[in-house]
Amino acid sequence: MEQDSINRIRYPQLGTREEFEDAVQNKLREMRLRGAAARTKAGVVTLPIIVHIVHNGEPVGTGPNLSQAQVQAQIEVLNEDFRRKPGTPGFNTSPSGADVEIEFCLSPVDENGNTMTEPGIDRFNGNRADWSRDQIENQLKPSTIWNPNLFYNIWTVKFNAGEGGLLGYAQFPDQTGLQGIPANSPASTDGVVVKYNNFGSADKGNFPVMQAPYNKGRTLSHETGHWFGLRHIWGDGVCGDDFVSDTPTQRNSSSGCPNTLSCNDVTPAMVQNYMDYSNDACMNIFTMGQKDRMIAALEISPRRKSLMQANLCSPPVADVPTANFTADKQNCVLLGSEVEFTDLSSNFPTEWVWDFEGGDPNISNDRNPKVTYNFPGTFKVTLIAKNSLGPSAPFTIEGYITVSEEGLCNELTNFEDGYTPSVVKLSQFGPYTGYLTGNNSAKSEGFSEFFENSCGYTYISGVKIRFGKIKMVNEDTKLSVVVWSARGAQGGPNPVIERKEVFYKQIKEDIDNNEATTITFDRLTPIFSRPFHVGIELDTTRLNAGDSIAITSSAHGEANNATSWVKSESGQWQLFTIAYGANIAMDIEPMVGAKPSVQVSATKTLIYPGEEVRLNGQGASIFVWSADDGSIVDFAGPQLVVYPTKQTTYITEGSGLDLCTTTASTTIYIRSDVVGLEEVVSSSGVSLLPNPGTSALNVVIDNDYEGEVSIGMNSSLGTGAIIPVSAVKMEKTIKIPVETSNLRPGIYVVVVRMGNSLTYKKWLKI
User: Where are the beta strands (DSSP E) in 290-430?
Assistant: First the structure.
């Protein structure tokens, strides 16, 4: 479970455990309806194993370089346990005990169909004495894994001291049928890792490296259970749920082979279950419910299913291939996007002939080609696979790829053209005052719009929100524009992915101009090809101060798709349809893409005149800046430092990468409540020497001021800027050197701040 949590952080597209559990339970219900769980012996499947023995140059049979006999002993135990074989330690007489009807073999062939001298064994010198999990996941697995569509990959390693008493860990199966979860990710880490001291069985030979009490091969049985989707029997919590009905609810994990009771204090705990932490000698039960769950995983997890279909455990048939394939995307492929195909043909083909209707290229001889679709429609795919005995029959799937008219860059909306732009009063739905989608007497704290993201966009660069009402008493009032994942209860907003604060001052200006408010996020924000929410969170204390705001929505009753959510004063998210019975959609348009966009961040957006503002561009490799008042023209660089004295919009244009949006703008607003701030004229005692100058500039201050001094500079022609210089003035006259050698010739404005006073001076570099 710990490793699963790590994987879900590294690969957010995997979704949540709850989504995985829903898929498994749905498959179990389907199996029960059709009676598929009552498998017979004729339905036994055999899966091929490749054991990657990771060593540090030791002779075979020494230390981590395990002997072939030790590996064979381990596979015998695995089969005894999964088949509940009579006369072996894997047999039990429990009425709930199951023959799982899954067997395993050491693969007789390698990835190319060549016969292996040591079946199922890949010896790998890692040139390392021991391994951490991070090294295993990021280095070892990706560089050594065999095609997980054909092989069950197992690694035996020596864990380093930082992994404590870890015996092994596994990766849960992935699944199809869930929105936004690719069928083949993460393939590069799929399998099981076992500590070399606990791989094999002391009952089946003299293997000195094995360590009791985990020396009878049950670590692999346990981890293989996880690999098929089984949870720990105690549900990873005190009396937790393992989602299997015929295992007693157990209080916690077992140690040794205790005689304890389950959570009802009546039924004995099933400490013999392979999914407990009992000693190896104690274990001997997979239940019928656990079997059903594992068989379900074989049906819904693409790689588990393909292992069964590949059938490498049977001797390779001397015949032409049977063509087969899969793809990482099939439905709602974005216009202009790339689809990666994976060959799954049998009998080890050496040549491939692909025909991609509507694709670019439309013909390929690669084994696993990548194809771009530039036209919308539904297209077939055909594969002919060849080996030395000849070609396969053409394998064609009609309508396999559906390409959406939506391009790689898009703006999504639930607000349809026919809707009536409205600011709905909450009084329509009860004894309230205020707005349904804004400040109200119910003290709603936030509002979000749900987006299915059915075409799997990967990024959100910003959002357009049309506000319909605003009252601004204090120009410091602001709200948070937020992007959430849709992983909360019933698909609600949670957790937060990105947040940006927006001043009411900006929103009011947009409302006055009858425009939507455009918010560009400070960074490229991933949405992981999954459903997401976009909306706002309010500072409800501002309602008492007189500030209020509301988002434009459709009129009540026009939208029936239940996409709008509201956050209550207690922090609970609910659909508007549940909270108030309101059927609306808010006018919110996230800007999404399968490619990055230019992003801009500003250190401040509401300032006193002349305050320093740093603008930083991201998302591109080349940035060129300009300002709407002409003060900046074609200034190149990722960062711009400015000292605006009036409201100014700065625009940056990015290039050098394939982008969705190449420009972004940021408006810097000037406070209207300026007190005690005045521009100091030349009589302030500030002079620039020499002026004109070449590469040296000295700012001389001769007056009675004492305290901090800051100096900034920017070119009115966009030819450069300096890193701001600071000093402390304690004498009447001070000379502050400013490095300007990196600036091109031109006219520069030097801003000198002394307390609340500013001096502006022009300097000419020649």
Answer: 325-327, 333-335, 338-343, 351-356, 359-360, 363-364, 370-373, 377-387, 390-391, 395-407, 409-411
Q: Where are the domains of the chain?
A: 2-215+287-309, 325-407, 410-591, 599-670, 678-765
Helix count and strand count (H, E) for the chain: 11, 44
Could you tell me if 644 and 668 are in contact, meaning their C-beta atoms sit under 8 angstroms apart? yes
Q: Which CATH code for domain 2-215+287-309? A: 3.40.390.10
Helix axes 68-83, 218-227, angle to 10 degrees: 60
- Tell whether domain 325-407 is in CATH 4.10.320.10: no
Alpha-carbon distance of 637 to 618, in angstroms, equals 11
Residue 77 sits at φ, ψ, to 5 deg, of -60, -45
Q: What amino acid positions are annotated as catalytic residues?
A: 223
Q: Go through 385-402 and write b for each residue having 16 or more CB atoms within 10 A of its CB, e for each that does not.
A: bbbeeebbeebeeeebbe
Rounded Cα gap, residues 597 and 619, in angstroms: 6
Domain 599-670, classified CATH 2.60.40, yes or no:
yes
**Same topology between domain 2-215+287-309 and domain 410-591:** no
How far does Cα 690 stand from its chain's mean position? 56
Write the CB contacts of 601 (distance below 8 Å, at least 6 apart in sequence).
522, 523, 615, 616, 618
**What is the identity of the amino acid at 355?**
D
Q: Which residue has the tokens 């829903």?
A: 22
Distance from C-alpha of 618 to C-alpha of 626, rounded to nearest angstrom: 16
CA distance 347 to 386: 9
pLDDT means per 10 residues in the chain (766 residues)? Answer: 58 57 67 53 82 98 97 98 97 96 95 92 97 94 94 97 92 56 61 97 95 96 94 90 91 91 90 96 96 88 85 79 90 89 90 97 96 95 96 97 90 95 96 94 95 90 96 88 90 93 94 96 88 91 73 95 94 94 97 92 88 91 94 91 90 92 93 48 72 86 87 63 82 90 79 80 82
Helix (H) or strand (E) holding 194: strand 192-195
Q: Which fold has domain 678-765?
A: Immunoglobulin-like (2.60.40)
Residue owning tokens 């194993």: 49
Token reading at 219: 């670590």
Q: What amino acid is encoded at 233 in this protein? A: I
Structure tokens at 320: 């032409």
Q: Is the pTM of this model over 0.85?
A: no
Distance from C-alpha of 233 to C-alpha of 217, rounded to nearest angstrom: 19
The CATH fold assigned to 410-591 is: Jelly Rolls (2.60.120)
Q: What are the DSSP calls for 468-529, one per residue?
A: EEEE-SSTT-EEEEEEEEB-SGGG--BSEEEEEEEEHHHHHHHHHTT-PEEEEEEEEEE-TT
275-289: string of b/e by CB count within 10 Å (b at 16+)? bbbbbbbbbbbbbbb
